Amino acid sequence: MVSVSTKTKDNVFVHVKVAVQQSVMPESTQEAMYKLDNVHAQIESYVADVVRSFIPQMTLDESFEKKDDISDAVQKKLSTEMANFGFAINKALVTEVTPNAEVVASMNEINKQKRLRDASQMAAEAEKIKAPAKGRGAARRQVTGGGGLPAGDARLAGLLRLCRWLGRSLINW
């Protein structure tokens, strides 16, 4: 696993991890054993070279989207260079692109604020829908006098109740 730190086009520092699978070419075992002192250090330097030449040309979002392109470029460069030393590169794979912790926190805060704004807009739209219904209810209460009957009918019903009460009161008197 090779870890490389670099900066993107939009000035964000990222840590890129690249996994490299290599093997010795059977016909070149002598070169593989004697041409390089430290194979892993040589591979790390080639990977770092490719990653540091690719990532600065990309924004942070592009670096996530184009991990396969970076992997292909690393594998092509390593295959060409390491063949001279008796090694075959089976696969080079970008496994992780991690932005700086402060950038991650900032991106999370931006997403949180966007969600809060969306929720606020949805609540305002719901209130707009409820407002006419509340207004219709208030208008109906004004017309009916709060009793469910139109205002004139409510007064008439009250007058009838008064008459009945008076009628009973006068009979009992």
Automatic annotation (TrEMBL):
> What's the superkingdom here?
Eukaryota
| SUPFAM superfamilies given in the database record | Band 7/SPFH domain
Q: Which residues form the Band domain?
A: 5-128
Q: What is this protein called?
A: Hypersensitive-induced response protein-like protein 2
